[in-house]
Amino acid sequence: MAKLPTTEQFWQFCLECYPAIQQPLLRLQDNWGANVNLLLLLLYAEQQHWHWSAAEIARLHQAVLPVNQQVTLPIRQLRRQLSEQPTIKAALLQAELAAEQLEQQALLAALPEHTAGKAADLIRDYLTQLAPSTERWQQTLFDLRQSQAR
Q1: Which of 24, 2, 5, 1 is nearest to 105 (CA)?
Q2: Over 59-125, what HEC string results?
Q3: Total-model pTM
Q4: Is the separation of the CB atoms in 111 and 4 below 8 Å?
């Protein structure tokens, strides 16, 4: 079994890869309710050749929901509403990033055992749970994969 990342290692991984894949991640978040932190964790897991079942991915989604719904989303909504007030918006962005780190801690604490093996498309498995009709998010997933490859 591969060693799990620490919260700091995972945060650094996210900081490194997020800029290149930001737009497709945000489209998946805004259009289909995907959790960006879970998407990033699934991307990390894919790179490590980990495999989880659909049920395990669903449990990860459930593990991050309380922090996301009670902390991150309200801060994000307020930040977006106050777009005309740059000082407050900047402070809310920092609070949102702190909430994102709390989400990551919840995800890492809930990580299931993983198995190594053939490459799995964990992100596709997650998006299928959110929106079973693949036509709805297929182009955004393609954009994500293309951005990641650069």
Answers
A1: 5
A2: HHHHHHHHHHHHHHHHHHHHHHHCCCCHHHHHHHHHHHHHHHHHHHHHHHHCCCCCEECCCCCHHHH
A3: 0.91
A4: yes
Backbone angles phi, psi at 53, to 5 degrees: -75, 165
What pLDDT sits at residue 119?
59
Q: Are 123 and 141 in contact (CB under 8 A)?
A: yes
Helix axes 86-109, 36-47, angle to 10 degrees: 50
- Cβ-contact 42, 123 below 8 angstroms: yes
Q: Where are the domains of the chain?
A: 7-149
Residue type, 117: G
Question: Please, what is the Cα angle at 106 between 40 and 118, to 5 degrees?
Answer: 45
Integer CA distances (angstroms), 81 to 22, 68, 90, 123, in order: 21, 18, 13, 30
